[in-house]
Amino acid sequence: MSKYLVTGGAGYVGSVVAQHLLEAGHTVTVLDNLSTGFRAAVPAGAGFIEGDIHDAHRWVDRSYDAVLHFAAYSQVGESVVKPEKYWHNNVGGSMALLAAMRTAGVRTLVFSSTAATYGEPVGTHITETDPTAPTSPYGAGKLAVDHMISGEAAAHGLAAVSLRYFNVAGAHGTYGERHDPESHLIPLVLQVAQGRREAISVYGDDYPTPDGTCVRDYIHVADLAEAHLLALRAATPGEHLICNLGNGNGFSVREVIETARKVTGHPIPEIAAPRRPGDPAVLVASAHTATTRLGWHPTRPDLTEILTDAWKFANTGK
């Protein structure tokens, strides 16, 4: 069994991955400054360091077999109005982490990247060779870190895998989404079902899609977590592998809302709102690289299962 450092392991995806590592028998330490994460989200059985990745040299040592890096701010809208916050933490912090790993001799990294690196897609099924043209400082920062990792792999032999997520949803037991403020469709819809919001806004209903609303690729967070464990095995010295993670299927905003009505038994009122600038009609991943290089096959592609798990967490996980 191995010993792993999980930066940002008190957040949504980081906590689920940390739990999966523990379930696989590994030793896990979570490093998180709790600026957006929650101490209660750190899995039982994991060590915990309350600290910042800018000070990673204080905690990264050669006893770790690898680092899984999730410590990033992730609000696209906020990144537009506070770009300096995102460059400082997401890019500057990652640079400090890479330096600490190099000094300590930790030579394997799995990085939490994003489909936001692609910006406006050129097609409906995005591949890793599609152009990267991010439209926000958040996406630009993640792409900058990907370039940084590529250089580290080529120059210093780092074994690295970047996983570019599409729309992560669902929950794994008591580990799920706790974002504040919340900006993701599924938890917002469930907040309406809980009575915490009056209605869900539908931004645009005249897109060239079957029901006029945007189509997105939703991936269960447990499937996502399993890809990280496979990435650790696939990481190769001197190579920076980049993989999209998605189901390859899309669900429209209205499909999500209607499925949530069935799962929760609540009416979930909706309000028509204008299109948001930069929202493409269809955003779906091609996960062929993850399938062939990692051996990854998502087993929870059903929207009902994703929403059911998210609903259970929304009512019992906090």
Q: How would you summarize the topology of this molecule?
A:
Elements: E1 3-7, H1 12-23, E2 27-32, E3 47-50, E4 66-69, H2 76-81, H3 83-104, E5 108-114, E6 125-126, H4 137-156, E7 159-165, E8 167-169, H5 185-193, E9 200-203, E10 215-216, E11 218-220, H6 221-234, E12 240-245, E13 251-252, H7 253-264, E14 270-273, E15 282-285, H8 288-294, H9 303-316
Parallel strand pairs: 1-2, 1-4, 2-3, 4-5, 5-7, 6-15, 7-12, 8-11, 9-14, 10-15
Antiparallel strand pairs: 10-13
What class, by secondary structure content? alpha/beta
Helix proportion range: 25-40%
Name the quaternary structure. single chain
Low-confidence stretches: none
Note the beta-strand portion: 15-25%
Secondary-structure element sequence?
EHEEEHHEEHEEHEEEHEEHEEHH
Instruction: Report the principal-axis shape.
Output: globular
Order of strands, widest sheet: 3-2-1-4-5-7-12
Write down how many β-strands occur, each being a DSSP E stretch of 2 or more residues.
15
Radius of gyration: 19 Å
Terminal CA distance reads 31 Å
Number of helices: 9
What does this structure look like?
The two termini are 31 Å apart. With 318 residues, this protein is an alpha/beta fold. It is globular, with a radius of gyration of 19 Å. The strands form four sheets. Strands 3-2-1-4-5-7-12 form a seven-stranded parallel β-sheet, with helices on both faces. It has a four-stranded mixed β-sheet with strand order 6-15-10-13. Helix 1 crosses helix 6, helix 5 (185-193) packs parallel to helix 7 and helix 5 crosses helix 9 (303-316). The protein has nine helices and 15 strands. Strand 1 (3-7), helix 1 (12-23) and strand 2 form a beta-alpha-beta unit. The protein has helices at 12-23, 76-81, 83-104, 137-156, 185-193, 221-234, 253-264, 288-294, 303-316, and strands at 3-7, 27-32, 47-50, 66-69, 108-114, 125-126, 159-165, 167-169, 200-203, 215-216, 218-220, 240-245, 251-252, 270-273, 282-285.
